[in-house]
Amino acid sequence: MTTKIPESTLKRVGMNLAVTRRERGLTQAEAADLAGITRKDVSRLENGVPGVAWSKLYALVATLGNSVPGVAAERSPDIEAVYRAIHA
After folding, report:
1. pTM > 0.85
2. What's the N-to-C CA distance of the chain in angstroms?
3. CA-to-CA distance for 29 and 17, rounded, in angstroms?
């Protein structure tokens, strides 16, 4: 069974990714290279586009220092926890 993540949650996570990346002084291309994903994946994640693999999200979060609000790279996806953290 697949849990659908609300679009507002994806957008909020994306915004947090973008802010954290910029705080680290990285371009999307630099973050992508460090995470081992494409720049297009970074863009899609930051824009809250559904359908990007969890592994790519967690690779980017790990690259950004595991400090993206609402996401913890060392855990398996817990949709409810992510949702609660973002909407707290």
Report:
1. no
2. 26
3. 14
Please answer whether residues 18 and 51 qualify as being in contact, where contact means their C-beta atoms are separated by less than 8 angstroms.
Answer: no
pLDDT tens sequence across 43-65: 999 999 988 888 898 889 888 88
Average pLDDT, the chain: 79
Q: Are 7 and 36 in contact (CB under 8 A)?
A: no
47: left (phi over 0), alpha (psi -120 to 50) or beta: alpha
Provide CB contacts within 8 A for 57, sequence distance 6+: 13, 45, 71
Taking CA 63 as the corner, what is the angle to CA 57 and CA 48, rounded to the nearest 5 degrees? Answer: 30
Closest by Cα among 19, 80, 75, 14 to 48? 14
